Write the structure tokens for this entry.
Amino acid sequence: MTVHALDTVLTDFQSARLQPMVPQEVSLALLTKAMTKAIAVREGKESDQQVEKIFRRLKVLFSQFAASPDKIKERYMAIWPQHDDFQALVKTKICENNRFVPHDPVFSMFNELAQHHRQPEGASLGVRMELYRQECERHLSVLYDNVVSPPDQMIHVTSTGYCDPNPVQLLISERGWHDTIVHNSYNKACNGAIPAIRLADALMQQSYGGAGRSDSRVDIIHSEMFSLHINLTHNHPVNISLVNSYSDSFLRYSLCSHETVRTKGMRGLKIIGIKDYTIPGSSSVCRWMVSDPSFEFTIDVLQYFRLIRKHVRQLVDRLFAGVGMEFDDVRDSLVYGLQMSSSLPMKEIKKGLSLSDDQVALSKKLLYEQGYLSSAALPFMCKQILESDDVPVGQKVLCIGYAQGVTMSAMLLEKV
């Protein structure tokens, strides 16, 4: 349990998007067609009848396992191409007269597949990491466009792209922020936010305790690009769900002392407590691995979410015990920010904590409006809570995240 000598506050949440969100019905249609072609090329099938059979089979799988537009309205994909008429692209034939038809690529990693009917697995990991670097530089430039004062320390959070120097180091080099220290919080996947916040808080507490620095601000930056890891050759239900739910995210926010936030007249979320928890014997249930050409995700879905349901109450009870509170005493008065990749974990956490539909409404709304934001999901909800006039000052907020490991984290905040 995190113990505070200094009251710290999360504040100044900012996000960057450089092009419009993609309607879910459009992405579903295009990804179905793209996967059809990739599988047909991989299997050496080019006749109209063979391709149509693959397409019909995938339509059924997508209807069963992909997030429909009533669950996710739209998503942000940083490398989705600008196109004047997506409907025309949707209507483009995959093959005609037993020949593949060339077409504009939906994703640049699949140029060879779209135009030359080869390389169905897509571009190499090296090409994808270069795309990651380029897009991160563009988005971080926007995130810090009007920032004059450098942070004392910065924490870079990602599980989808690795390069050295990383995008945050490139940013501070360009800005001449030579005294800013950069830390990496990598491969925490969907549970990246709370461990990074815990690290930021520890850095502030260390500074307050007199370790040779006197820091006033630690920035946390999320740059997640799951669209880079689309795999079109696997029609497994998990992969279909994955490629149709994740949304790219670029977000920054700051951790400052409560006194600094109050003096500047800013709104924020004060940290009351943080608790991390690793479920025993769960390391093989879910894995996110670096591989070529795209990162690989494996999961025993039912076991994963059963474990979360079984252990979430224990996690929350330990969090509240550490700050001298009882969860049952305040359960009905809390605002909840719950990391939700689909309706399944929402259902399991609701049961584990005995929550109502209204208490998970904020989490459900974020998934519908934005798609699944992975490590940035909880910070996005914090941003919405800060900006909402319906959430009063003094309101306590419980955030819960989880990821492979299986690791779970909980954080109790108060709006100030």
